[in-house]
């Protein structure tokens, strides 16, 4: 016990930093149910943490089982396609009633119908209001309900003891859930690579678990404050009692700072504020995480509470993320031998777009569908921005790549390129860095500066086991699809892909967008089997004055794209198993998703979506 500093008084002051549990009547501490472990049911707290961990593990194992099932299915199809090629019939693969029913009503079904815009814009801005898929919705509901149930599983006791139990339970679960909150926010989250679930999905889970942490923190602080508010000490009660505790304990002051920071993090993470200035948001968010982390650490360390070990786990995750990012940046962007750092060339394009080409000192082969985080310090000092890889090539590798799911046909398949590589991204000008980038590029024909890329990330979906592939893109979403066409054509030539038909559907507002990818389309057109395998339909939604000559391999249509009509035509001529991918704004993605779901009653189709969201 601490002795009051008043020399004339020998009255003992309650030790607010005492964590030992003593709920007996002999304990005369008036604040005993407002601090420490008095009244806290620690055994039940750890029981529910273990149950919550088991729940998360069960969801992980279900996702892992699904991934293994899908990978094995793709390997069998790819092996069959490579061995028999044209001499087989895949009618038995076309339709499986039970499996397609699961896809139609669960796997590809949104949890609610989103309001679709009248026009799919040419944008690479991501929408936070996209509807959850049924698997995402079910996962969130299970986890949220579990937390609510555990927080309310309180034994029947006196009100101060009940509130002490709530304080301990909610504080314990909030601290534990912070581990998932941080893990799901990491670009290098190992679960992404194990489960092949997109960062976008884990970022969605990050936001929902973070909301749980804040709600449990509110309950934790509220239970503490209610008990303290009702304590009379030295003739004072109410807010004076709460103030007295804060004055006499660093732990509670730092805990309050962490709590206020958590509230601010949730408020400033609202979609409209987040999108208004993303660079400002991400900087403030990182600073807020540091403040909240240090506050939580001192809150737990001052009392040596058992949850302190979880803070070390969180610190380890954040530190590991920084180390991995720095190592990836240095490895791909710096050559000690040649004293060469990545150079960036900017070229302004029609339609307020910028082509950014990164010349890397080392070989770098991108997987189709992957993206990178771009660092341009002269444009945005320390922020990075994610963009899909439109095109990449190493000097000595051509189109070869190493894919863990691909069946190699020759030793040449494992060839690893050497020398410099180029990685190109298309960046539409909106606000902030993208607008500054376009204005900088517009000042000169070609602008050169230094920068770096971090990645690649994503690109888990392999399409080379499908006979028919339909690729939908809207606006700069074309950057997600070009490498798929290149990889599938190369696989068709080498006999490692089952591809028989490729339809690329690109929706744009005006013909000026063709300049974005014209050079790359010409390279694709020069590849073997292009004329027999690939068809490119371009839908232009805005009327164009006069006529503009277009290459013969482009089928330009002055109309809005109807995905249902497109898929109906492809199903009638479908050769084997079909894959449909889409990359664009949510309104366009939703229309393609619904078209696929309608078509599932006739054919078995696999659907892959890439959305732009943050």
Biggest β-sheet, characterized? 6 strands, parallel
Radius of gyration: 29 Å
Helix content: 40-55%
User: Largest beta sheet: what is the strand line-up?
Assistant: 16-15-14-13-17-18
- Structural class of the secondary structure composition? alpha/beta
Summed over residues and divided by their number, the pLDDT gives a mean of 83
- N-to-C terminal Cα separation, in Å? 51 Å
- How many β-strands, per DSSP? 18
Number of helices: 18
Q: Give the overall form.
A: elongated
Approximate strand percentage: 15-25%
Can you tell me the number of structural domains? 3
The low-confidence runs, each spanning 5 or more residues with pLDDT under 50, are: 1-10, 84-94, 114-128, 397-417
Characteristic key phrases:
3 domains, five-stranded antiparallel β-sheet, Elongation Factor Tu (Ef-tu), domain 3, 614 residues, Rossmann fold, 18 helices
């Amino acid at each position: 016990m601490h002795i009051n500093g008043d020399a004339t008084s020998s009255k003992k002051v309650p030790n607010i930093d005492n964590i030992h549990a003593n709920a007996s009547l002999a304990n005369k501490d008036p604040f005993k149910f407002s601090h420490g472990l008095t009244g806290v049911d620690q055994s039940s707290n750890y029981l529910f943490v273990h149950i919550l961990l088991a729940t998360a593990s069960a969801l992980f194992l279900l996702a892992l089982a699904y991934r293994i099932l899908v990978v094995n299915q793709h390997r069998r199809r790819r092996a069959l396609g490579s061995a028999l090629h044209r001499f087989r019939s895949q009618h038995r693969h076309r339709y499986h009633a039970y499996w397609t029913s699961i896809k139609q009503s669960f796997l590809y079904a949104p949890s609610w119908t989103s309001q679709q815009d009248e026009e799919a814009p040419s944008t690479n801005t991501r929408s936070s209001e996209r509807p959850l898929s049924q698997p995402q919705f079910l996962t969130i509901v299970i986890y949220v309900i579990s937390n609510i149930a555990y927080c309310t599983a309180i034994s029947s006791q006196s009100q101060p003891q009940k509130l002490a139990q709530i304080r301990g339970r909610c504080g314990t679960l909030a601290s534990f859930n912070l581990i998932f909150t941080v893990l799901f926010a990491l670009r290098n989250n190992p679960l992404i690579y194990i489960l092949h679930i997109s960062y976008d999905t884990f970022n969605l889970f990050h936001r929902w678990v973070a909301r749980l942490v804040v709600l449990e923190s509110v309950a934790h602080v509220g239970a503490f404050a209610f008990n303290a508010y009702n304590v009379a000490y030295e003739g004072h009660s109410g807010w004076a009692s709460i103030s007295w505790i804060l004055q006499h304990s660093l732990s509670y002051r730092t805990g309050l700072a962490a709590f206020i920071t958590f509230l601010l993090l949730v408020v400033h993470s609202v979609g409209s504020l987040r999108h208004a200035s993303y660079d400002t948001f991400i900087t403030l968010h990182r600073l807020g995480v540091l403040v909240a982390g240090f506050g939580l650490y001192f809150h737990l360390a001052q009392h040596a509470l058992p949850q302190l070990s979880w803070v070390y786990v969180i610190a380890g995750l954040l530190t590991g993320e920084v180390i991995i990012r720095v190592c990836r940046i240095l490895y791909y962007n710096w050559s000690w031998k040649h004293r060469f750092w990545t150079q960036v060339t900017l070229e302004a394009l029609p339609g307020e777009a910028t082509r950014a080409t990164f010349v890397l000192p080392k070989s770098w082969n991108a997987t189709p569908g992957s993206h990178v985080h771009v660092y341009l310090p002269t444009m945005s000092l320390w922020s990075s921005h994610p963009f899909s890889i439109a095109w990449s090539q190493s000097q000595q590798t051509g189109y070869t790549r190493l894919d863990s799911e691909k069946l190699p046909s020759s030793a040449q398949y494992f060839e690893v390129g050497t020398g410099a590589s180029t990685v190109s991204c298309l960046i539409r000008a909106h606000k902030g860095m993208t607008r500054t980038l376009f204005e900088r590029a517009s000042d000169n024909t070609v602008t050169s500066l230094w920068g770096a890329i971090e990645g690649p990330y994503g690109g888990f979906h392999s399409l080379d086991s499908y006979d028919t592939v339909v690729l939908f893109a809207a606006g700069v979403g074309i950057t997600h699809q070009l490498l798929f066409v290149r990889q599938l054509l190369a696989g068709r030539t080498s006999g490692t892909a089952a591809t028989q038909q490729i339809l690329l559907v690109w929706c744009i507002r005006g013909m000026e967008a063709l300049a974005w990818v014209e050079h790359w389309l010409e390279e694709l057109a020069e590849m073997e089997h292009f004329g027999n395998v690939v068809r490119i339909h371009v839908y232009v939604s805005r009327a164009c004055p006069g006529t503009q000559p277009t290459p013969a391999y482009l089928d330009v249509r002055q109309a809005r794209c109807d995905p249902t009509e497109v898929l109906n035509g492809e199903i009638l001529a479908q050769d084997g198993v079909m894959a449909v991918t889409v990359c664009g704004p949510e309104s366009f993605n939703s229309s393609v998703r619904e078209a696929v779901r309608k078509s599932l009653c006739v054919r078995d189709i696999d659907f892959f979506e890439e959305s732009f969201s943050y």
